[in-house]
Every structure is written in C-alpha cells, then in structure tokens.
Amino acid sequence: MNPVEDSIHEVENENINQRGTENRIWSSLSADRLLEKLSRPELAILYTDLKAYGERALKEPMPSLSFRLYRQFSDTGERKAYEEAYFDRRGRLAAVTMLALDLSRPNAMQVLEDMLWDICGEYTWCLTAHLGTGEVDQVDGNIDLFAAETVHMLAEVVTIHAERLDRLVIERIRFEAERRIFTPLYRDQRKFHWQTADHNWSAVCGGCCGMAALLLLEDEPTLRESICQTVRCMDAFLSGYGEDGGCAEGIGYWVYGFGYFTYYAEMLREYSKGELDLLTGSKITAIAAFPLRVHLSGGTYVNYSDSAEKEEIPSGLLSLLASRVGLQVDLPLHIPLFTEDPCHRWAHLLRNVMWSDPKMYGDEGASSQAERGFIFQNLGWMIAKGSLDSPDTKRTNGGPLHVAISVKGGHNDEPHNHNDLGQFIIHCGGENILCDPGAGLYTQAYFAPDREQLLHISSSGHNVPLIEGQEQSSGRQAQAHVLEAKLAEGGGELNTTLDLTSAYSGAASLARYTRQFHWKMASGGSRNGAELHLIDHFHWKSRMVSSAERFSSVDDSDAGCSSVVERWMSRVQPEVVMSGNLRWQGVHGTVHMTYDANQWQVLTEAIDTVDHDNVPVTFYRTSLSWTGAIDETEVRTERPNPLETVCEVRFIIEPKMGETEVSMRE
Hints:
It is built from 17 helices and 21 strands. It is of the alpha+beta class.
C-alpha cells in the first residue's frame, strides 16, 4: 500500500470515538497565538498591507453579488466582474478577521459578524463559471473549488473567534455548512466529478471540505465518512503526479493543488495525534521539491500550461514542507502580501502567518548540485541552470547572473493543456527572454470547444513551428517521444531530442519531425556565456513540389508540402544586428540568434493581448520562413536526404553589455 492507502486503512479501522472532543479544534488555531505571530518583525509589511485592506473594509459596505453580475456568465461568457466582487468579499472577510484579533477594535467584531452573515446569505458559494446556465438545479448541492474554500474559511474563522462571535452567527455558519456541503457530500454521498480527479480539484475541494468537517462536524459517523472520503480524494490527486514529482498544470497549480493537500494533511496529522500522516514517502518529497526545480532565478519560474512566470510561493507552505520533508529552500524569504493574491485566499494567508519561518530559507544559488538542473522523466520536462559573471553594475542583487533553459515534452491532453510540444524557454537574469505566454484570461471560450484557436493555448503562441500551414493538434495522441535526455552533472550541459511527428497530424506530407537541443555553458578562457544549438529536422513523404511552390507568407495555409515557419515568442522586441543575426536585449542579459539567411526569411510581428489578470501585454513573435524548395532535379542528385528540410539556429546568451561594448561588437 502507498501512504494514502495505508491512511484509509487506519481510518476505517480506528475507533474515532475514543479520540475525544479535545482534538476537534486545530490546537494552533487560536486568537492569542495568531496575534502573537502577527507581531513578529518579518510579518510587519504583511500586517501593514492587511490592515490597510481591512480598514477600508470596516468603512465600506460589502460589494454586491447582484443578479445582473450573476447572469453575466451565462449571457455573455464573461466572468471577471462577478469574480472581482466575489473575491473582494472574501478578502474583506479575511482582513477583518485578522483586525478583530485586536481587542481594542470592538467595531471590527461587529463588522465581522455582519460579513459572516452576509456570506451565509449568498445564493451560491460557487462561481458562476462552474454552474452552467446557473439554474436552480445547478446550484442546489453543487460544490466547486470556491464553495469548498468558503466553507473552509468560515470554519476556521468561527474557530478562531468562537469565544466572541454571537451564538446566532455561529449557528448560521454551521447550518449553511451542513446544508451546502456536509449533507450532499457526506450524508447523501452525492458523487462529484472532482472526487476522482487527478488534478487540483480533488485536493482543493476535498481538502477544504475535509478541514471544515474536522473543525465543525460533531457526530462521529459523519466525521469518519469525511476522513475516508477526503483521503481518497488525496489519493486521486496524487495519481496525477509521477514519481518525479512534476506538476503538468504548472507552478501556479502546484501551489493550489499541493498547497491544499498539505494544509489538509497537516490538520489531519494534528487531529489524529500523528497517527494519520499523508506527508510521507519519496513521491511526496519529490512533489515538494517541484517549485525549487522549476525556479530559474529571481522569482521567475518555468511557466508551461496556465501558470505565470512570476509566481508567489506561499512562505508558510514552503516553511512547513522544509520542516516536514527536509526540503532545501534556496530562496530568500519573501512573505507574499495579502493584496498580491487577486483571489485573497484565506488558507494561504493564515498559514503564511502561522508557519513562515526565516530559518528554513537560504540564499539563491545555494542549492545542491542536483538542483542545478533536472529531468522530469514522467512529465517530460528538461531543465538546465548555470551562472555567468556579470559586469552589469545596475544589478541590485550582485553576484552571478543566472541563466537557464527549459524544454517541454509531454502530450497535448494535459490538465490546463496548451498545444506546446517542443516548447522551450531561455532565461537570463530573472527574465524569460524567449518565453511561454502562460495563462490567458479565463472566459467561457477559454474552456469551450475550439479553445486551441486562442493565442495562449494554440501552438501559434509558443516557440514551435507551423508545418504546412498546420498548428499542433489537440489530444492524447499528440505526444512528444523523448529520444534522448542527458543532463551533465551540475546542469552545465543538456542534450535532448524529441520526436514531435504526432503533434502535426494535419500536415499531410510530413513523414517525421524531430527537434534537437544542445545546451552548454561556456567554460574556461575569456568566454562568458551559454549556447543553445537547436536543430529541427523535417522529413517529407515522396510527393515532390516544384521550386515554384515556395512558402511566401507566415499566414499562407496553402503553402507547399515542405513549407515550414519557425517561431520564437518574447516580450522583448528583437533587433536585426545583421543578416542572419537577431538580438533580444533583456534587462540583464542578451540573447543572440544566428541562422542561415539564404534559406530562411525573418519577420517579427507585435501581438497585443491580455494576460490572466486582464492586463494588456504585447508579445513579439519572430518567424523564420523557409524559402528553399525541393524539386525533382534535387531528388536525382546524390544529396543524402533530398526529402528533408533542416532548420539550424544558435542562441548565444550573454550578460548585458554597456553601450561602448555594443558599438564595438557591431
């Protein structure tokens, strides 16, 4: 049995009645202890941020979740306005909960009671995007991520302030928790899709409802059912991870899913006096290490799927994992501000306050040799990291300039999938210069059929080619086959070859497509840089095209069978240094790309879009269009592979040069 199955076995054979009621309340969840934690110097900035938000909440009425906002998603597919009001309500409740710890603020407790009463009266705790058309039968008994987060938050708030809250408010919270969550889930045992999901939903929904049950449920049979159900949810969640600990959903959803897994696991361990411990085993240790392995430098991460480059890892979560599984945190301590989280998640806030421990943090670059690069064998991600000497005196942190590359394999039916097989990132000095677009704005269309037409999801928004006018196809059958993946000790050299043929099922004349990466850090002498040598081989079937069937436009879907367009995405606008040489000038580093200008024509276009938070962003997509052609004359020659197109480019990554050095180089 794995640890989760062992835990289920223990729960089912344990007489929970003998535990007594003294363990029901999470022992660390007390008002006095929270107030003491908030007075620590490392939390001063967080507390100032929290108080400012809370002071506004004390003076202003709660934003309304009006019928007009409720209907907006089913009518137009837009969800932003409703969610902004929804999350602001949760944020105000969280901030005022903390302010009410101060006994010199009697008005805070009065406002807190009104807020709790107001949230108990919401038509639904679910987001409208998870309710279909929002009819009554879709609301009744429905439990989504945010209904689960809400019941968990209310359970912990009422636990913290149990001695001061009005009895009617406490009874109302228990009543609503029973009606909306415990009865459909544990008593009626309705089946929800997330109970067997192998991604964040099982951990978040199961864990939040499970924590609320540990704090609020009083009858032992229902509590026992809750524990058994929740542990099975956690088992389903872990099934989505391989033994390498890689999260296909990306770092943002690692925080979400594994964060709530950890939060439930720790409460269950404390509740059971250590008898039920889900945070054990090599797989858990590998999952816990994921954020450090995909951290490139300066708080910037590998951000495949729907993740952001800059991700706030909850300091409490990392501190707890460092303590429990021996995680080496090679990052400086940063406690996220409450207002930095647009969802204002209570679970992260509370545990950042309770668990953040400066002693668990180190310095960037102080990781073990194994973390200088990593190959996720199950996930199909390859990462190599290194450092360069930097003459840039404007850098504030001093020390070496960190550089890295990441390559993505996998398949095109992953959770929060993007069609991005063969995608890669070039990183330098805290910046992904050749980048991944990450998550787009969540709308109805983002999760609807034909979603792969959207830039953030389509291969057109990634560093992968267009072949015969065809983008990558969706589905499990589109898979990157790893032919080679070798990482030298210390991460200084990475060699990877992927067969990506199945990703382009729409390219009728494509016989085989392979992509090779050769990454190497400069060593010795006066060299101070890193190099990525990328070689794409496109093998064609026997059908020939004449030299007149040349590819003429990056948007020409009727191009000849051997038409290829390579594409590179960046937030930095590239400059043409000379024919066959482009340059992306980052904040602290420079990426040069050299290519055969006789065979490839370059074009850069600006693409305006919005990110996940609806903030405008411009990407610069640089395309290399193949201008050669295969004809019958070439086939009759002694050329070894007449039915092959090869794109060979070199990326040189160097520290940023001063203006004098640039002019001398040019």
